[in-house]
Amino acid sequence: xxxxxxxxxxxxxxxxxxxxxxxxxxxxxxxxxxxxxxxxxxxxxxxxxxxxxxxxxxxxxxxxxxxxxxxxxxxxxxxxxxxxxxxxxxxxxxxxxxxxxxxxxxxxxxxxxxxxxxxxxxxxxxxxxxxxxxxxxxxxxxxxxxxxxxxxxxxxxxxxxxxxxxxxxxxxxxxxxxxxxxxxxxxxxxxxxxxxxxx
Length: 199
Hints:
Layout: H1 3-41, H2 44-67, H3 72-103, H4 111-138, H5 141-170, H6 175-195
Subcellular location: Cytoplasmic vesicle, Secretory vesicle, Synaptic vesicle membrane; Early endosome membrane
Membrane topology: Multi-pass membrane protein
Transmembrane segments: 21-40, 46-67, 79-105, 111-130, 151-175
């Protein structure tokens, strides 16, 4: 590897780590904000989104661990851990959406929840794009794959936001759990691709 290539690689590595640290920091703060909003509104959707933030923290931690070392075996283990995160995400979404629909649970309105999920959606989509570009430039499947976890997090934030807004404006309490089923499909598909070796 030439000196210029080594410098470029080092720069990409720093960028990848920075993206993961921002993701970690955002989700740590998010757990606190979402917890407060969920308790105030008695919202299952907001509480569930807080659990999703925990999964994203785990996935980001895996990437930081993988980027700190080398070797295909390390990458394979990291990908399997991220695949497990997708499985957990799909399971949580399926259970949460089914319970909310079956119980007919109607949460209170949450201005804090609406504001936080709106900003979170924008931040997660931006981080996901950065991870996709950086992972492609580094030829790092772990960073690219975790970028998909971040993308799902952004889509989930948008879905929760839509549900909160429709509940606040029209009383459509069932909109959020229905959107959750779409994300179940996406998360299961990503997990299947990881475990089948397509990544």
